[in-house]
Amino acid sequence: MIDSDRQSPxxxxxxxxxxxxxLLGGLxxxxxxxxxxxxxxxxxxxxxxxxSTDRAKHLSQxxxxxxxxxxLLGACNHVGCTYSHAMLQKIDERIARGDSDDVILQSFxxxxxxxxxxxxxxxxxxxxxxxxxxxxxxxxxxxLWEVVRRWRQRAALAxxxxxxxxxxxxARARNESGKGSDE
Length: 183
Prior knowledge:
The protein is 67% helix and 0% strand. 9% of the residues are buried. The longest helix has 37 residues, at 9-45. The chain is an all-alpha fold. The chain has three domains: 2-45; 54-116, no CATH class; 126-153, no CATH class. The protein has seven helices and no strands. Helix 3 crosses helix 4.
């Protein structure tokens, strides 16, 4: 009777394989469930931005996110950013009210300061900051060209250096050199 209760070795191997398969299937199913729950929690934590119009998307590209990540508002993917979603909602609300783009941008400047603008206003020092990088190399090249031009003029005008030789000494040197070559 003891022999009949025992399973033969091939049956034991099959049982182990089935047990391992169930265990592996359970682990894979659990991992898939964890991934699904993780994705759902991210989706619930970071709801999709309600930018329903092209105008809202355009305005979000003209502003920086106020969280300090230096990303454009529409592209801010800073984990845990509390500013971008609220700012995008304000844009949508103001568009729904019928505010113009300039009024919306000015309201953000009043609330967050000029640092929120992706492109600074073209006035005062900002204008110099835009023009200087273009103008400085042009002025430097002009100055360099003038210096080289003046050096060349000065070199062309200057004669050979050295002591002045009188005509008598020059004639004497010619005579002596002529005599020395005849011998």
